[in-house]
Amino acid sequence: MAFIAGVDLGAGAVKVVILDESSRVLGYGQERSRADFDAVGRRAIAAACESAKLSTGDIDYVAATGFGRYSFDDRSIQITDLTCAARGAYAVFPDARFVLDMGSQSTRAICLRDGGKVKSFRANEKCAAGSGGFLERVARYLEIPLAELGTISLIARDPQPISSVCAVLAESEIINHVSEGRTVADIVCGSHLSLAGRALSQLKMVGLDGPVVFVGGVALQEGMVRACREKFGQPVLLPDHPSHVVAHGAALLGLQRYLKSKQGELATVA
Fold it and tell me: Rounded to whole angstroms, how far apart are CA atoms 10 and 253?
């Protein structure tokens, strides 16, 4: 029995999913990203192996993806995170044709074709206002833990819009809302709705006309999920482990490559 690790080395966190040869998920791992992606990647794999009741020496193949994939020396193959997001989303919701991948550094709207392959996509501009990095700024300014943004947003009574597409100018809007006595919940909810509105624009560019699979670390925030459901006008499907979907896709593609290489070896021997 072979074991495959998919490693998503993102700007905010490194996520790992371990599969067996039947594509069954055995374990998950996650570590906060640091400058040394190689070391963090190894720790995340070790955590996933512990979850799967395996040792790191049991891993036969490692598929790396994400921002730091080229910095991970233990990779057997590197794959673009766009491709992995599409394949991972297809694995959990095979009937859906649209994916929203929202992480710390970037947001991508993806339209799928048969088999979970990318048909078309649109990415946010370089400004952090279009990604989870914007919410990190919001949390820092409002002096609340990032992990609490999602639940705080749910109690908003009068969400305050954030209209600027620039993270710096958007922060100025937040300062104005605070000075006007707006509640933290209303500001956070307005930030979620702002981000959802930008994501909707990207999804429309790839032909949005059906359910959207929401993946990435930002999908862990309940308020953000609610904002997307309110804005999109389409069902928003949430995987059980949204932050690990890209790593799952990497593992599936890695397994495919691993099995193909083994078949080639057997053909050569024969």
Answer: 18
